[in-house]
Amino acid sequence: MAPFSKILGLIPARMGSKSVPGKNMKLLDGTPLIQYTFEAAEQSELLNTILVSTDCPETAFFSNCFAKITAPFLRPANLATDYSPMIDVANHALNYAEEHLGAFEYIVLLQPTCPFRAPGIIDEAIRHVVRQNADSLVTLRKIPDAFNPHWAYAFGQNGLEKVVERHTFTRRQDLPATYHRDGEIYITRTALIREGLITGGKAIAWLNDHAFGINIDTPADWARAENLVQQWKKQTKNIFSY
């Protein structure tokens, strides 16, 4: 690990979810959803500081009960709407961190809607971005062949149209691999945050293939998480405590 790299962990936790009300503090198998991300962040050896950015007093109080987690401010209302850009939230937290704790090289954004991170993945991703001297990193997952954009269609003005026009692939075996952001980890150089970007510059990926990937956005996602959580806890019981 390069000695110059000081890493800020940021957990954004807005209280205004409409699809799953009270999502961050909602109990998933008896554990508040956000606690899964707290546990993963506290296992990291490379996060120097872990801040929670929230507009919810209950979430802030709960955050401050953890040894390595702190919610030292309440996010202003203009940064807690359905339309508030995440880059503005990151800049707000970075302003606080730099004023009180000094400069940081990278921000690691950890969304609480992704409760089932693989053990050790945060530090593995940090080491990867520093080793590659990259400006940003996102965790990706392979898109299943059935949903590959090369086989996707849309209804246009002239009828049915292929979404990707460049090639026609008739066999699954010929499809190029494509990937989607899974939301688990974003790492960004702080200089890039100041430019208004979470992903950019020399951008690299961490390919995620563990079986528990989920980003909870809808009631259906929550139901799927409830179906996975017991197996997840069984596999990680010696690493995380719930």
From TrEMBL:
Q: Which CDD domains match?
A: CMP-NeuAc_Synthase (cd02513)
Which Pfam families does the record match to this protein? CTP_transf_3 (PF02348)
Name assigned to this protein: CMP-N-acetylneuraminic acid synthetase
